[in-house]
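Input sequence (366 aa), recorded before submission:
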Amino acid sequence: MEEVKQQFPDVERRRNPSASPEKREAGQVAIFQELGKALTSSLQLDQVLSTIMEKIDQFLRPDNWSLLLLDEAKQELYFELAIGKASQSLKDVRVKMGQGIAGWVAQHGEAVIVPDVSKDTRFFAKVDEKTKMETRSIVAVPVKFRDTCLGVIELINCFDGDGFQDRDLKLLEALADFAAIAIENARHVKRIHELTITDDCTSLYNARHMAVILETEIYRSRRYNYEFSLVFIDLDHFKQVNDTHGHLTGSKLLGEIGDALKNHCRLIDFAFRYGGDEFVILLPQTSKDNALHVAQRLHKLIRETSWLTKDNMNIKITASIGVAAYPQDSRTKEGVMHLADEAMYLVKNTNRDSVAAAHMGIVKPL
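Predicted structure, token format:
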């Protein structure tokens, strides 16, 4: 803490020039106590960022300020937070790496102070065109965790009569470090959560998470008088794939089929790996008749696709599929699951490679 105090001897003076040394010191300590408390007491990113936002506004007083985060896949920055006039218009704006001041900072990992943007060729004027604001000056610092740039904090028009001092930049860089820790903590928690609810082999949700989602869907459907359906899928003779090609190939096949099932679901649907070579599709707000059409399409997809063609395998496989619906077949989670499973085993124990529905038996293929 002593080192932090020495770094920011004039933070309180910027806010209150007549403040005594004792008050300035108290202000300096308070900043980092609050941020430290926010980081250690909450893993909610919004709570930590709101504290950082408050301190930036309180001590640096920009007209506008933004936290831009890096979309690694697209190599673009997007506005995670935007505070100030016309901030709403920035929600859909994206800045390419290297584009504008923020893009340059993200690309090079260095802080930038631009007292007059009209004299800096890096300035990206299209953002002003969208927000109808006039940017006169910019201060931008990278938000870095270790050597990885996660984003950029950018302050617009924050220069006072004395300009933007080194002490202000050090404060902003310290706040950016706190933001980086908060962002990385949130991502770490998200990754841990994803590991607990997803299946390693297929990246679909696992059976444990299925139980939670199904409980929620039962509650929602009861309350709003909705229907929903379950589709149970079991791959036929999957053991032969493992015996012939090895378990690694079997795992790849499960992963590819899992991807195909997910891609053929609506955004509101859920796909799960139930265990072994079994999959379950939950279809919210879907009648039994419509679920049967979905099941028949998935049956045809699995049957007619040549799998693992990228590995020059061209594996053909079929599936036994069962369907049950809430509330038509049962009004309980256990009942709907049992009936869908029972319908699937009806197919499994007869001719396989078909679709069956609870209380209806095997149905004709498409």
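Checked by second reader. The CA atoms of residues 163 and 320 lie 72 Å apart.
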